[in-house]
Amino acid sequence: MLLEARLLDERREGKAEGRVEGKAEEKNAIATLMLAKGCYSLQEISKLTKLSIEDIEKLEKEMHATEQS
After folding, report:
1. CA of 3: how far to CAs of 8, 9, 34, in Å?
2. 9-48 pLDDT, tens per residue?
3. Residue 44: what are its φ and ψ, rounded to 5°?
4. Which domain holds residue 57?
5. Residue 9's CB: how many other CB atoms inside 10 A?
């Protein structure tokens, strides 16, 4: 019984972590699309995606590094 409860708790934790990771990936994908479009400022992207300016700058650098490769 105790093992079953523990496994159930671990499964719930895993699902919650998966949702958080999925939301973060979605925000990054949206910010990347906005950067690629080129008509949004970093502040606008931050406001709409709730990502920090620093995170958006990292995405922008990654985009440019990928383009140069």
Report:
1. 9, 10, 47
2. 999 999 999 999 999 999 999 999 999 999 999 999 999 9
3. -65, -45
4. 2-68
5. 10
8-state DSSP, 69: -
Tokens (6 digits) for 27: 């925000």
CA–CA distance from 17 to each of 22, 27, 36 (Å)? 9, 16, 29
Tokens (6 digits) for 33: 């699309």
Total number of domains constituting the chain:
1
Question: Rounded distance, CA 51 to CA 17, Å?
Answer: 18
Write the DSSP assignment of 40-65 as a string of letters.
S-HHHHHHHH---HHHHHHHHHHHHH
Q: Is the pTM of this model over 0.90?
A: no
